[in-house]
Amino acid sequence: MNRRIESLQSLPRVADSWTFLYVEHVRIERHDSAVSLIGKERTVQVPVAQLSCLLAGPGTSVTHGAVAMIAETGCSLIWCGESAVRVYAAGGGETRFSRNLDVQATAWANPVSRLQVAQRMYAMRYADDPIEDLPLQQLRGREGVRVRQSYAQASASYGVKWFGRSYDPTDWNASDPLNQALNIANMCLYGICHAAITAIGMSTGLGFIHTGHLLSFVWDIADLYKSDITIPIAFQCVKDGTTKLDTRVRRACRDAFREQRLLTRIVPDIHRLFDMSINQVRHLDATVDDIGASALWDASGGTVSGGTNYAPNEE
After folding, report:
1. Rounded CA gap, 261 and 294, in Å?
2. Do 49 and 73 touch, CB atoms closer than 8 A?
3. 200, 210, 203, 212: which is closest to 281 by C-alpha?
4. How far apart are CA 26 and CA 49, in angstroms?
5. Integer CA distances (angstroms), 214 to 120, 194, 204, in order
6. pLDDT tens-digit readout, 88-137
7. What are the beta bridge partners of residue 295?
């Protein structure tokens, strides 16, 4: 892609981007308005402005220029483990403002509103089960029952035996193929959710059901889609065999994310969770006029203009 980015206003929205690309054992360099993936046998140019998330696996190195390009185009760069099964670190997304983060943090800091958001999350997953005003203990219990049912139904539908969710993060080979497939599929899903959350300027760490981890909110949002997307993909891929399982699962996730237009769903679902209008949750919170603008918090409940010296006038 040789299109020159004239301003941040010309960046594509996260909802319009491709989903993700996983790479390993390559060197990532900048090439005009794209990045080059340089391997031992060939070099591939990638229009990174069209990606929502670049998953960098083992053996990957990246130049300063490539990172700058990735950041400018709003693509999230995630450093992950082999087969994209663990997240080690991640770069930022497109946003330059904190308005969406303010809404999230305000809801998270108040126990009443935090519970309301958690209830909405459960309600979105289980629309046929009236759960309004239930305490978290009962919500977690109902979720556990539904999750077991999802695995049991998938096992019956695909003819793959299910022995329970069990894996050791420190020993990949100790898991059975089905648990490995679930881990890979879920990590791909986490990458997309991470990209969407950072693109609209919210924190991945301020979770409403999960807590205590920098990916708590990513896990919250990803749970909205596991039963419909990653669980069926994992069972189908294992049914088809275990050869090159990791590659087939990632490709199946990529295709499913595109076919189900997942990125166009995540941001509206987030705005529903916080009861925000479409205009409040923006796909891209950056314009030329806004860059560098700031406000200062005021104890009266409002804000005052930034970039102003508030020292008393000298006599």
Report:
1. 35
2. yes
3. 200
4. 19
5. 22, 11, 6
6. 777 765 556 778 899 999 999 999 999 999 999 988 888 777 666 778 88
7. 305
CATH of the domain at 30: 3.100.10.20
- Mean pLDDT, the chain, whole residue set: 80
Give the whole-angstrom CA distance, residue 15 versus residue 34.
19
Q: Per the domain annotation, does 281 fall within a domain?
A: no
Domain's final residue, options 69, 90, 111: 90
Residues 220, 78 share a domain:
no
285 versus 311: which is more confidently predicted?
311
Total number of domains constituting the chain: 2
Please give the pLDDT value at position 303.
67
CB atoms within 10 A of CB 217: 25
The pLDDT-based confidence of 314 (bands split at 50, 70, 90) is low
CA dihedral 10, 12, 13, 14 (to 10 degrees): -140
Residue 35 β-bridge partners? 30, 46
On whether the pTM is more than 0.90, the answer is no
Tens digits of residue pLDDT in 173-197? 778 999 999 999 998 899 888 888 8
Neighbours of 279 (CB within 10 A): 7
Quickly tell me which residue has 């900048």 as its tokens. Answer: 30
Judgement on whether residues 159 and 227 belong to the same structural domain of the protein: yes
Tokens at 234, concatenated? 């994992």
Q: Domain limits at 154?
A: 99-273
